[in-house]
Amino acid sequence: MEFLRQKRQVALFYLFILAFVLLIYHFWTIQVRDHASYSWLAAEQGCYSVALEDVPRGRILDRNLIPLTAGTREKKVIVFPMLIDNKTAVACTLAGILKVEPAQVESYFKRGACALPFNLGDEECREIELIQSKGVLALPVSTRYGGRPLASQVLGHLGKITSPSEYKTLTEGGAKPYRYNDQVGKNGLEAIYEQDLKGLYPKSAVRVFHDAAGKLTGGGPVIEENLNDKGRRDLVLCIDSLIQQIVEDIMDRMVIKGAVVVMEAGSGDILAMAGRPAYQPAHMEEYLKMGGQDRFSDHCTALYQPGSVFKVVVAAAALEEGLVTPGTMFTCTGEKESLIHCWYRPGHGSLTFAEAFAQSCNPVFARLALELGPAKLIGYARRLGMENQSITGYPVQFDSRQNLELIGAPYNLVNSSVGQGPVLATPVQVAEMINTIVSGGFYHTPRLVKELRTEGGDITRLFKPSPGQQSLSQKTVQDLQELMEMVTERGVGREAYVPEQGSAGKTGTAQLSGEDGGVNAWFAGYAPLANPRYVVAVLVEGGVSGGESAAPVFKEIIEKILSN
């Protein structure tokens, strides 16, 4: 019995120790880890305040630490109605300055302390100062989104918490406090890195203190505070804002619907990715009313039939397996071919494999696919990343429709050889396939995000680049580069040729099924020829052909990038 009593005492002792440790940890989280957040919430209970930042949130920056959200800092009217003596007169005066109806200004007064949604010029600021009311101020307010942010479909957008389940998910997902009127990430990087980007409180605010009964203390002076929010993180991307701007400007003129991906040759870092149609996150309500989920989807990571761009995979497999050399002879009889018709109805006649690649001759690639067999073709497609949807720092949801095993299903191999049938790929995958050839046969997992850091520049999380995996031999890579040079110099991709510095690549024209039919036009390539710097994949939905619709877009993007 004595032994059992001692055993119970020891167990009780350790139970008390555990409870004490848990209590100390709880105190530590309140007093140390979350001290700033709780201090802010406590201060909020004893004052009327207006944040001078529309969304307390970390920045999304390009590789050169330039904000991509195009946020602005504009002066706005800040009102503390409880400090205004003659509200009707002040409302009329403000209405005259802002050129709105007095009733509209009075409606804002009823909301309590707030910032009015009007940007002020220098003249309006001077007129507001003449009102001489301590309840009316003109102060700069930081906005997250400006008129035209870059890469909006990748960055995503914000919105208010809309349901108890969403609130529960957010509060259970991390240590940061949330309120029902908070703006949170709804999709894209804003949603993926919500817990990192979210700020604990605004970086600056103005406030008026009151007592427990709501009575203003000390005569109600307006106090402006600048705060150091250590809770938020900045997200640094691989994107180059200058290149992203070039891509989006050109797409606005030349691509109604489609996608463009620009990679740094050799590394797989994504320098730009843009889709059309797009939207502006600062005006979400307008776009939501317009409808059409297409503009909110990331076209660069969506699946499309790649068309003849997939012939790069067939060519790589055939060269690597020793089935052909660039000089191997073939014959094309055009629309008379039994396996698959050639797009050039009269036929190309006798031609080398290099010429077949440059002219994108369908029958040649259908024969090679049959000779290779589905297992080898699938294997080389995997080597070139045509089934890897991973992007470092950007965990997009896997789309199960991409299944290379379907190439081996009955009657699929011939259509697959020209990038039709079950073959699907994303613009990012197509860009990395070309990058593998530029990189000496090494496949790199594409990378979008570089790091998370504090505002002070301390890195809290690093997303390392892929070391690269050998996929093709040097000889095959050299042959493929020469073949892609022929495409732009004297093949179907001549519209993509960049004078002086040169370019290389492959066209693609994917016929769409359905009543309307139509074509998805592709061009994927690189430039310059000597020491390539950039890989670009262009998709134009509803185009004419890869050579007519996508190649000119590639050329203009490359020329503009190289000239800057």
Global Rg: 30 Å
Q: Identify the overall geometry.
A: globular
CATH architecture of the largest domain: 3-Layer(aba) Sandwich
Mean pLDDT: 90
Q: What oligomeric assembly is this protein in?
A: single chain
Distance between the termini: 87 Å
Q: Approximately how much beta-strand content do the residues carry? A: 15-25%
The number of helical elements comes to 19
> So what's the CATH class of the largest domain?
Alpha Beta
Question: How would you describe this protein?
Answer:
The strands form 7 sheets. The protein has a 5-stranded antiparallel sheet with strand order 12-11-21-20-19, with helices on both faces. Strands 2-10-16-17 form a 4-stranded mixed sheet, with no helix packed on it. It has a 3-stranded antiparallel sheet with strand order 1-8-9, covered by helices on one side. The radius of gyration is 30 Å and the shape is globular. Helix content is 36%, strand content 18%. The protein folds into 3 domains: 73-143, Alpha-Beta Complex (Penicillin-binding protein 2a (Domain 2)); 149-203 and 225-232, no CATH class; 241-562, DD-peptidase/beta-lactamase superfamily (Beta-lactamase). By secondary structure, the protein is α+β, with helices and mostly antiparallel strands. The protein contains 19 helices and 21 strands.
